[in-house]
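Quick one: structure for this chain?
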Amino acid sequence: MKVVRDLASGFLGFWLPFSTLLLPAAEYSFRVVKVYPHDRTAFTQGLEYRDGFLYEGTGLVGRSALRKINLDTGRVVQNFDVPQPFFGEGITILNQQILQLTWQSQTGFVYDKTSLRVLRSFSYPGEGWGMTNDGKQIYMSDGSSQIRVWDPVTLKETRRIKVMDGAQPISALNELEFVRGEIFANVWQTDRIARISPADGHVLGWIDLGGLLPKEDRTGADVLNGIAYDSAGDRLFVTGKLWPKLFEIKIIPKK
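Got it. Here's what it folds into:
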């Protein structure tokens, strides 16, 4: 671990981690660019944007699915119902395949991106929450403060990243998205997204999305969850579990 000597305690002969001396993470707010329809029965667990379409993994036993969705209309153009007893979780798209986690079954599925046909299953220890990738590695969350890093071919864990805001571990990491060299993570049961360094897990900033979903749309809605990034168009999309709307937003510094 990279360390620096703490001058105030240098005479005591111990070292402090670099992260404990960092300034607080930057705070950001948002501006809504456009609002899209979203299926308010979808318990959103994973969200991706590819080639003009949204791909969404939904949860709850008996209601879990993998969907291809028309962004502008919210219409489901392809669907695969995840069989019971699986509770669908996060998804990621890599090499024309879609990977999907399940919550407590320690089982994941690999789909053909074009047909949504199941190609195979795979296993992992513990719970599955969110997934993303940078084209070379897969990042997976399990509800803790750690992000697992997987080899994209073997789907085996190679290391873990401890997510810290200064000296504070950040737990309940949920849906993940790789955005311009950072990992964006929903923090479960909050309206905040952590911007995380994939190199060392340091929280680079916080995006506060409080008030994003209008009060009149909150009846029956669950928590903020779902981040998708259009790298070609530099567009960021967010939604939530059982939300009737999906939002394209711009991140702005908090005043």
